[in-house]
UniProtKB/TrEMBL annotation:
<feature type="transmembrane region" description="Helical">
    <location>
        <begin position="130"/>
        <end position="158"/>
    </location>
</feature>
<keyword id="KW-1133">Transmembrane helix</keyword>
<comment type="function">
    <text>Part of the binding-protein-dependent transport system for molybdenum; probably responsible for the translocation of the substrate across the membrane.</text>
</comment>
<feature type="transmembrane region" description="Helical">
    <location>
        <begin position="96"/>
        <end position="118"/>
    </location>
</feature>
<feature type="domain" description="ABC transmembrane type-1">
    <location>
        <begin position="58"/>
        <end position="261"/>
    </location>
</feature>
<protein>
    <recommendedName>
        <fullName>Molybdenum transport system permease</fullName>
    </recommendedName>
</protein>
<feature type="transmembrane region" description="Helical">
    <location>
        <begin position="58"/>
        <end position="84"/>
    </location>
</feature>
<dbReference type="Pfam" id="PF00528">
    <property type="entry name" value="BPD_transp_1"/>
</dbReference>
<feature type="transmembrane region" description="Helical">
    <location>
        <begin position="243"/>
        <end position="261"/>
    </location>
</feature>
<keyword id="KW-0500">Molybdenum</keyword>
<keyword id="KW-0813">Transport</keyword>
<dbReference type="InterPro" id="IPR000515">
    <property type="entry name" value="MetI-like"/>
</dbReference>
<dbReference type="InterPro" id="IPR035906">
    <property type="entry name" value="MetI-like_sf"/>
</dbReference>
<keyword id="KW-0812">Transmembrane</keyword>
<dbReference type="InterPro" id="IPR011867">
    <property type="entry name" value="ModB_ABC"/>
</dbReference>
<comment type="similarity">
    <text>Belongs to the binding-protein-dependent transport system permease family. CysTW subfamily.</text>
</comment>
<keyword id="KW-0472">Membrane</keyword>
């Protein structure tokens, strides 16, 4: 009883020197979003969402983000398994390289993609000469740019789930004669499925909001590479209300992602 009373007393004291900066930080983060909601053209919102330009950017964004997420799942899950379970030299360095896109300015990522996958790039020249494939300034280029910046979110989430999973089930499957591939498909992957889903959702949301790498590597061509973030940038110069509408869509997606993953984060913190 004494301990609980002391704990309640200590938790009830809120020093003013901490409360005021905390409230300022909260206002700094929330007020701009409230301003976006207050300035939104709610009366014309349905009509603006149905315009050709907005609808085109929305459809292209959803398509490219979904394809980028599929690409990240196909390549990111094996990479996460390699980092979590594989005995490879230089694993720490590999993990650091995987997380570089998280801190790298997206524009720099777009430049790097151009230097490697452009028509005169290290790899792009052979893709163009041998197969006639040119990725820059195409819809496929948007998918590649979004996958580049979004894959670390998936890899980190799946790697964390793999490290937390109990390896005894995999060992039991191996003693029963299951191959490594069968064990991965039937035991490992189902056990880390929540981490895969969480990483996939984060990956999709990050791809949907990508701007810098996309405009640098894929350009800004309406109907082909103009995703919603790029459309917001263009609309600010011509029709700010359209920019607000597109921003609201991206904001709604972000809030939905946070709400969907809230329980997972809370469980991980307990």
């Amino acid at each position: 009883m004494i301990r609980s009373a002391r704990r309640r007393a200590s938790s009830g004291r809120r020093p003013l020197v901490l409360v005021l900066p905390a409230l300022c930080a909260l206002a700094f983060l929330v007020v701009p979003l409230l301003g976006l909601l207050l300035r939104a053209p709610w009366r014309t919102l349905p009509d603006r969402l149905l315009t050709a330009e907005v609808g085109q950017a929305l459809r292209l964004s959803l398509l490219c983000a979904s394809l980028a997420t599929v690409l990240c799942l196909v390549f990111g899950i094996p990479l996460a398994w390699l980092l979590a379970r594989g005995e490879v030299p230089g694993r720490g360095l590999i993990r650091a390289l995987v997380t570089v896109p998280l801190v790298l300015p997206p524009v720099v990522g777009g430049v790097a993609l151009l230097l490697v996958l452009g028509r005169r790039g290290l790899v792009g020249r052979y893709l163009y000469e041998w197969f006639g494939v040119a990725l820059p300034f195409t819809t496929a280029g948007v998918v590649v740019a979004e996958a580049f910046v979004a894959m670390p979110f998936l890899v980190i989430s799946v790697e964390g789930a793999l490290r937390a999973a109990d390896p005894r089930f995999e060992e039991a499957a191996a003693t029963l004669g299951a191959s490594r591939w069968l064990t991965f498909r039937r035991v490992t992957l189902p056990s880390v499925l929540p981490g895969v889903i969480a990483g996939g959702v984060l990956c999709w949301a990050r791809a949907l909001g990508e701007f810098g790498a996309t405009i640098t590597f894929a350009g800004n061509f309406p109907g082909r590479t103009t995703t919603m973030p790029l459309a917001v940038y263009l609309a600010l110069e011509t029709d700010p209300d359209d920019a607000i509408v597109l921003s609201l869509v991206l904001l709604a997606v972000s809030v939905a992602v946070l709400v969907a993953l809230r329980e997972r984060w809370i469980q991980g913190a307990i």
